[in-house]
Amino acid sequence: MPMRSRSTLPGATDAAVPANGARPGTEQLRRQNLLAVLSGLRLHGSMSHTDLSSLTGLASATVTALTADLEKLGAIAREEQTVAGLRGRPRVLFSRAAGFAHVVAVQISSDALHYALSDFRGTLIDRFSMPRDAMGKRPDGFLAEIGTALARLLQRSRLEPSAIALLSLSSKGIVDGEEGRLIWSPVFGREQVDFSPLLALYPDAALDVGNETLLVAQALSRRRLGHADASEGFSGLVALSLGHSIGLGIARKDGPGDQLSVTAPNFGHMLNTPDNRLCRCGAYGCVEATAGFYGILRLAFQVPENTIPAKFVPLTEMEKIATAARQQNRMAQYAFRQAGLALGQGLSRVLSIAGNLPIAVTGPGTRFFDLLKGGLDEGLLQSLHVRLNGLPAIDIIQDEQSLVFEGHLDRALTAVDQRLTAPR
Asked: How close are the terminal C-alpha atoms of the chain, in Å?
């Protein structure tokens, strides 16, 4: 992600990494070491010199030099901790300097906009939501609405615009992170939204635009890597988001340490079967056309398959259909089973390519998972890969919004660290 320079470490220059995989140059290696120290302090909190050396595998002298550079820049701070009853010099702990930089996260969901502000340590400073009804109907009105909310966020926190190092936005749909654009979304359809004008008021900020389910996969992976029991043997996972839209994120452990590679293939709008079920994207036969809330509603009420999909289905309406299904209403049961079947068939193709990865299911649709599971298993077992290797482990994770925020924070602060250590 391209970023304007904010502050860089003295002497930080990049050496190109040879294509043949040879050992990186001295400055490139130094940058990697700086990132390891910053990442360790972000993920584990205050740490001593010895703890940092143990965590990163770096020599004591190297840690001393790196922390000295980061202190000079103001990115980390030290504090002396005196242990009661013990003599000798106080224990020195290093931590990220909370006020060094701030990041803003904006989650564009089907029914609301969620805003959050965090400091350089990843501590939440402020958070609020606005209903989608308050959003502008057109991209220009939408940007104005976000701009007003961002100004409110700073005013409440008494921060200057220059304090913001990164503005991170997420949405369901297709995004162009390099250009800061929303290419297609359930909210605006094919009408693109360019978020770069938002940076006009934030002189030192960079912009990141990402897929929402990608952030979920990022957060879940980071949680598992942060727990010794869960991290053992961890190679990756698939995150499936169920709701008005159907999203998918795939995370894989990438290289040494806790490095992750995360992608968000266009799963919901992948062709599932050639039929007349019209999708919100304008195509027919997409996974979402059967498994999204509007697809389930259409089947349950026997609405013609090519009826223009509802833009938004209230959760209360879905609860009514689910209640009918649990009371043995055959059409309601059929609608959920077909939705599960489409999801299972799609996931079977994903696992055939990605390999044996556990699946984490999130989103408001998790409350109907009991009605989806029969069709989901049936769809998965249509794949030879699944029949040979067995059904994947499936976990239900309820609080998707918290995961999206965690993913925002992890990616945003990682990007700020990379920017901090980049060449001038």
From this structure: 16
How far apart (Å, rounded) are the C-alpha atoms in residues 394 and 415?
31
**Residues 240 and 388 occupy one common structural domain:** yes
Give the C-alpha separation, 299 to 330, whole Å: 11
DSSP code at position 178: T
Backbone angles phi, psi at 270, to 5 degrees: -80, 135
Q: Are residues 151 and 209 in the same domain?
A: yes
Q: Are residues 170 and 309 in the same domain?
A: no
Listed in sequence order, the residues at least 6 apart from 366 whose beta carbon sits closer than 8 Å to its beta carbon are 242, 396, 397, 398
Residues 155-213 pLDDT 10s: 999 999 999 999 999 998 899 988 899 998 877 888 899 999 999 989 999 999 999 99
Kindly provide the b/e burial profile for residues 73-106, where b requires at least 16 CB atoms within 10 angstroms of the residue's own CB: bebbbeeeeeeeeeeeeeeebbbbbeebbbbbbb
Q: Locate tokens 């360019």: which residue?
A: 194
Give yes or no: residues 311 and 192 share one domain. Answer: no
For residue 251, the 8-state DSSP code is: E
Per DSSP bridges, beta strands 112-119 and 124-131 are antiparallel
Number of domains comprising the chain: 2
Q: What gap in Å lies between CA 67 and CA 52, rounded to an integer?
A: 10
Residue 230: inside a domain: no
CATH number at residue 315: 3.30.420.40
In a domain, 184, yes or no: yes
Tell me the CA distances in angstroms from 226 to 32, 202, 253, 285, 416, one per residue in order: 20, 33, 13, 39, 20
Q: What are phi and psi of 97, to 5 degrees?
A: -75, 115
Helix axes 293-300, 330-354, angle to 10 degrees: 140
Condensed to tens digits (0 to 9), the pLDDT of residues 98-153 reads: 999 999 999 998 778 999 999 999 999 999 998 865 444 678 888 988 999 999 99
Let me know if residue 157 belongs to a domain: yes
- Domain range for 375 is 235-392
- Are residues 256 and 146 part of one domain? no
The candidate with the shortest Cα–Cα distance to 156, out of 116, 98, 107, is 116
Structural domain contains residue 220: no
Q: Residue type for 403, please?
A: L
Q: What gap in Å lies between CA 115 and CA 126, rounded to an integer?
A: 8
How many Cβ atoms sit within 10 Å of the Cβ of residue 355? 12
Q: Are residues 155 and 267 both part of a single domain? A: no
Name the E strands within 109-244: 112-119, 124-131, 164-171, 174-176, 181-184, 193-194, 206-211, 236-241
